[in-house]
Amino acid sequence: MTTSNKIDDGIFFSAVIQGHTITVELPPSITPALSGLPLRSRTYVGRSRELSSLLDQLDPSRSHQNTARFAAVVGMAGVGKTELALQAAAEAEKRTGWFPGGILFINLFGYDNERYISPEQALGSLLIALGIPGEQIPPDLADRTRLYRSILSAYASRGKHILIVIDNASSDGQVEPLLPSHDDGTAIVTSRHSLAVGARILDLDVLEPSASVELVRRVLFQARGENDSRVAQEQEKARALVELCGNLPLALQICASLLADSPSRPISSLVQALFAAHTRLDRLKREDRAVRAAFELSYLQLSADPARILRLLPLNPGPDISSRAAAHLTGDPNIEVILEDLARAHLIEPGTTWGRWRLHDLLRLYADEKGKEHAELDERQFSLERVLYFYLMGATSANLILKERNGRGEDEVDALEWLEEERSNLVAAAQTGHEIGVDLAFALDEFFHLRRYFDDWLAVIDSALKALRIRGDLHREGWALATLALVLYHVRRFDEALEIGKAAIDICRRSGNRYGEQAALNALSQSLYHLGEYRDSVDAGRKAAEILHELNDPQAAKALGSLALALQELDIQEAIQLHRDAVSDCQAREDRQGEAAMRNLLGMALRKSGEFTEAAQEHWAAATLYQEVGDHHGEAAALGSYGLALQDAGRYAEAIHAHSQDVRLCEETGDRHALAEALDNLALAHRRAGQVDNAVVIYRQAAEIFQEVEDLSMEGLAIGGSGRAFEEAGRLGEAIEAYRDAVQSFRNANDRENLLMALETLGITLLKGGFSEESDKVRQEFMTLASALDAC
């Protein structure tokens, strides 16, 4: 009789007994625990790109010879690192041949001092999960690591690779002993720090807004079923809710759970509860989940200096901060090293360019809370003044460079780059109400004017006015009102500019602010011109120029040139001479920006007097000068004027080219109103060239943008232009429809002068088209409105 005593197809790490007849009492059998993943979320959404990237890294069929065998999912607290790792692990487990040996999962609680798991403890737990009896696990870290890796190697040699999921690691030292040897296994690590363990790093950001809303919807659907339609019914409030949560998954889950707890509670109620920033973190909690608690675990890991820096960063008024500004804020010239450490800990985030940093909105609230707790220790008020002074000095220096620009210096480029980069911070700093912020509001005028940032300009001047009135500073209040009048003129709010300008003149005269009075008179002159009050416009302009002359200011001649725009309506030849004098004066002072402006005005006057060829030459010279000094808004305006002069000269093909260049520049600068005007001019050129279809399409584009920017009068004029194009082509039916639309636009704008002309045009065209009854009604309305205007 033959006895077989063979053992194969197994992996053994304890005594193996063989014999013919043996009686041994064995311990209970031990089964490796290789499939113990925590439950995944059933409402997972918005991470398809990241999940795909992570699975690519885990795919055993891909060559990993030149890439990391491990993947590290890193990001701030509450961003969803663990969930992504679990989703990837569960998906990998389903893939045939990927990890036949199973999956090991361990949470290291790296940021929780009370539950922190050391590498020794973690290896002990993993070895038990792999089937090693506790009494056979060595006490030493190095020995445990060798045994652990030997087991993983043995599984790998039998084609049973294991995936290790290591969650919540806080340091390289905590995670390194848990990683398998090369080619013996694959690992996913999650951490709030960017670990240096040879892993391919996947930085996890917050969700996109649409995915955030969908997450809330899915949680409510899971909890309450399809009858819960709050997200669909309150879409705007749902978007507001996710914005208040900063699209942070932890915060979103908490909010969705709070709504699920109370099915009758509208989303608007929770939005209202979260709206107050000082209590938002208090609201973002439910049972054992809280946003503040998650942040606290990361904060407590910091040493004194990084903790202080984190507490000070929310003092920066804007959305992000440069390393230079942070150095001024904190008084630490070596700040960048600490900022990099905070970024590795995902307590701050690198900006879009190197050397800039930002805080997630909720982390900013948390850090600000901590800062207020340590206000005296951190010298918060002094720190705020330091960073505001940094912005003031930078803006003042850059603004002076722009005022003296001639288009020939790298300083101008550097100044504009800095101002653009810091624009959001400068605007926010100017609105703090601090005395330095008020000074900053005045130091940005040239930049805002050059780049047409009129909304920003209005915001900072409004804030400065409030602060100055509280302080009773009449002198600077007059200057601020004069500036406000000028900005209102630029945004075509002429009636308001007129009112504010008069108030500014009164205050400047009472406070003896001559320059402020001159600025107010200048803004008043320009607004009066656009309101058709030409004589009053000229009078105001002359007074402004006289003040500059009294003050021996070299800009006096340029001011006279500016008032000549209104003078063109009264005495064209005198206007032309004033413009020529202003051009000569700017040339003598090498004021290339001023020369460009005066040449463009001169071209307008020449065009008005019928000298189209010379007008075109002046406009082209202005456009060239604007291009040289980097004023693309001015260049676009000059090109538009150049095109109009070419049209008047009958050179339509050249005009179309010039207006097309104007359109391109306006698109690049983002000036929507200027773009609509450029399109309107381009449409006119096509119309005058007999290209009706092109003209109509472009007129409609212009009208749509005028409607978008709420200039309904110009919308009506553009639509009326398309009507004239139809009428000139003999297409009366389409012309009548366009004229009807134009009439409605002027009614909506309450523009009675243009409405009167549009009614007259519509009435005549209706009569031509055989619609005599409707024509009579329109002409009757025309007569009634004309009488009312005459009475005024």
TrEMBL record:
SUPFAM superfamilies xref list: P-loop containing nucleoside triphosphate hydrolases, TPR-like
Annotated source species: Streptomyces paromomycinus (Streptomyces rimosus subsp. paromomycinus)
Designated name of the protein: Transcriptional regulator
Orc1-like AAA ATPase domain span: 45-169
Domain of life the protein comes from: Bacteria
SMART domains: TPR
